[in-house]
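Q: For a teaching session next week I want to show students how multiple molecules come together into a single three-dimensional assembly. I've collected the sequence lines for a complex. Could you give me the predicted structure tokens for the whole thing so I can convert them for display?
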Amino acid sequence: MSDNENYEAAVQSASTEVASFEEQGKGLLGHFHHALHATPSLVPLIVLLSSIVIFGIVVGSNFFSAYALTLILQQVQIVGVLAAAQTLVILTAGIDLSVGAIAVFISVIMGQFTFRYGIPAPAAVICGLAIGTGIGAISGWLVSRVKLPPFIVTLGMWQIVLAANYLYSANETIRSQDIATDAPFLHFLGRTFELGGAKLNLGVVLMVILVAVLAYCLRSTAWGRHVYAVGDDPEAAKLAGVNVNQTLMSVYMLVGFICALAGWVMIGRFGSVSPSATTGTFGNIQSITAVVIGGISLFGGRGSILGAFFGALIVGVFELGLRMAGADAQWTYLLIGALIIGAVTVDQWIRKVSA
Amino acid sequence: MEPILKARGLVKRYGKVTAINHSDFDLMPGEILAVIGDNGAGKSSIVKALCGAVIPDEGEVWLEGKKVNFSSPIDARDAGIETVYQTLAMSPALSIADNMFMGRELRKPGFMGKWLHQLDRPAMEKFAREKLSELGLMTIQNINQAVESLSGGQRQGVAVARAAAFGSKVIILDEPTAALGVKESRKVLELIQDVRSRGIPIILISHNMPHVFEVADRIHIHRLGRRLAIIDPKQHSMSDAVAYMTGAQVPDGVAA
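A: Of course. Below is the structure for the complete assembly, covering every listed component.
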């Protein structure tokens, strides 16, 4: 055989070193870009911190008080919990329009089970959590087995759950005083405590713990990797050995459970149980806003739950800061709209792998 | 000798399109069986029917003499059949190590792994790096880089490394060298022979005739959705094989 035909033999003496290159000076912007690429949740964190600083300068020292800063946490607790749920669905390349409706319905169930049927409050809470998980299971089944688009399933579920909420409750509100005297356990997550001059409630603690636990699960367990893989490319995940249906099912059930937790948080936050709470209609869009500002891709498979948490806090900072500055409430919506578009723009810039 | 993987009368139709037409298949223990055929002959379809990715409408499959009914690729994988698909089946945003261990992640020993299900990343990364080095994929700088940042050839290399590392009974390679460079293709061929020397049989689907004739023990020629013939590469030339698979010529002993 001539040398030409035997060209493949030359690979015998190929290099066996793992390739490595000298780090070339990328400049400050380059390093920044790299850091953002490695940790996508840095962007919302930077926006969060700078918006706190800007409002601090505009509004004055009142904004930096422990009171104001913890007030933000208290105000975002419901949206924060819903955004945690929304993150999970969006990571699987889905979307859940029913999160707010489920939260309201479950708060009504917890209240009515206690007051209408005389079930002890802790048992009513457990029933509520179970029913929330069940509603999630129905959505999950429709998405994973019947293969319906998540948008359609949860759009329908939103209407069904919200209507069921009004029908079941007969549009009846349970007053805060009645809950406080007869079933104080329903207010459990509204209990406040002092922490170095700051006033926090257990709902905020629940939100923080929930985000921390989910962040761990998504990053460091096989289940979390499967959630990302399913959102990235479900066909590839299936061939690679991921049980796609089971993963989707677990996500939607967990989302139902977390929305039910949000329902319990609502009772603590509002005091009363009202079937017409605005969370039923605004909860969805607020949670999706937090997720998008948090840098999570609506196409699935990319982003971190910490980003969604920061996203929820950013919305809270804007709402409180603008109110304290005496601005018209419409400015809040205008700026949040700009933030959504800005967040996605920044996201595209970070995605450029060439950096 | 009893085939390790045997199929009889497989049929798969998609509406009016017939992908597999009463096809048989035999893989002997310890052999390298090449599957060749024209584009659209149904090579990928029959192989997918063997590894659970496609559920045949009719026909039966036996693994080591036992009848099997794989309803998903996970079933086939649990039975010891590992496949490299043409599409590679990788999650682009996840790291190389994550992809190699997809669906069979390692957990940390002790409390963290048992109760908190924490992944053992250092062990997974070390294993992944070793397997890539065995394949000669030295141009991958960082085992934690996302698969989407790899070149097409590197991705294919990672997919082959994954199958070779975990396959215990049968390894199926669907066009494993299509996107690889000279050195990597050579390494894949060496790896194929290395896997055979460990006693694990391989099904190799390829368009590259020199590679097929170099490594295959037998060649399964697929034509129009079924097995046309099995030929011995030592007794037939590459041009014979091409003539058979395109229908220009009919092998001896086969009714036209």
